[in-house]
Amino acid sequence: MPQSWALLVLLLGTAPVTMSQQLGLVDTLVASGASKFASFIQSDPDVLQLYTSGQFGTIFAPSDSVITNVTVLSRALNPLQQRQAAFQAAKGETDLEQASEPLTGAILETAMGSPLLDGGNQRVIVDTRPINATGPTRRWHSPLPTRRAPASLLRITSGLGSNTNVIKGDIPFQGGIIHITDSYFTLPESLSSTSSATGQSTFSRMLATSNMTQTLESTHSITAFLPSDAAFFARNSTLPASTLLANHVVLGNVKYLPDLQNGVSLTTQRGERLAITVRGGQYYVNGARITKANLILDNGVAHVVDKIITPSPPSPSAASDNSAHLGKIFAMVAALVTFAWI
What percent of the chain lies above the pLDDT cut of 90? Predict the structure, then answer.
């Protein structure tokens, strides 16, 4: 063999693994200890096509070691399982370093669509805060049973504010990155189900008695601040339930915890203001501290607070802007009426 060819063979033999030499998704899942999840997505042609489409390059796959009593599926997944499968894939390629960089956490868009998010997909939230900055939810829900997992490399919050931990990450495959987790993400639920399941029973009862449940749960893109039961006990509010609830809901504006930067101002359902303050890593809404964050909802997100919130009236500039806007509308209507009579 000529020396040049021998040198080429030697170089090829010692070259690092390239994209073309990486394993495919299913083979990489099996090799990484997530063969049950590989079977899960392979059982449905539509789900497998979604995973191999190249649109979703970050896969969160539960480990075989933390999933028990799983029957290998031999037919297509049902709609709930299809949603769960889509919820485990996120757009783009996000490695552990990228996800951990923002001090306020990161927002990852998944493959699970949501008609109540104005055409957008559901999100999961990387929570980079110390573990004592937020509390666990009361009820943890998963379509598959799990057991205790190893230490967390990354903590991710989903429905009900449940935490899923990455226990092995940055595993490359042809098309993206796999992170092995200790559970499935928890699917988002409605505002009433979430408030009840996470222990905000007073807010849940108030929602039911005010006849606002259907209105708030069918509204697109909301942010809700849920006073804890202790908050209601500490302050016996005399406001009507509908008014109190409206003081704690922002419509048409989903604000996950990373969006709640210091100085951000939100407008409640009643048109009043909520001011966000961040001090010492703690988040406050008009003085009420967020104690549980990122309870992902069907139509937005909820955060639990330790006080009943008293909103501030609209700022004079906002009020004058609204008046000017209404003045323009009335002028246009008057002009149209005049034109109709000519």
Answer: 69
**244 and 261 in contact (C-beta within 8 Å)?**
no
Pairing of strands 176-181, 265-267: unpaired
CB 181 within 8 A of CB 164: yes
Q: Which residue has the tokens 């939230």?
A: 125
The span from the first CA to the last CA of the chain, in angstroms, equals 97
Q: What is the pLDDT of residue 14?
A: 41
Q: Are residues 270 and 177 in the same domain?
A: no
User: Which one-letter amino acid corresponds to residue 245?
Assistant: L
User: How deeply is 278 buried, as exposed, middle or buried, from its count of CB atoms within 10 A (0-12, 13-18, 19+)?
Assistant: middle
Q: What is the mean pLDDT of residues 8-15?
A: 39
**For the purposes of burial, counting CB atoms within 10 Å of the CB of 145, is it exposed (0-12), middle (13-18) or buried (19 or more)?**
exposed
Domains contained in the chain, number: 2
The pLDDT tens digits for 155-167 are 999 999 999 999 9
Contact in structure between 117 and 300 (CB atoms under 8 Å)? yes
**Band of the pLDDT at 297, cuts 50, 70, 90?**
very high
| Claim to verify: residue 211 and residue 296 sit in the same structural domain | yes
Q: Measuring CA to CA, how many Å separate 333 from each of 9, 147, 215?
A: 80, 64, 30
Tell me, yes or no, whether 270 and 305 share the same domain: yes
The angle subtended at Cα 188 by Cα 185 and Cα 189, nearest 5°, is 140
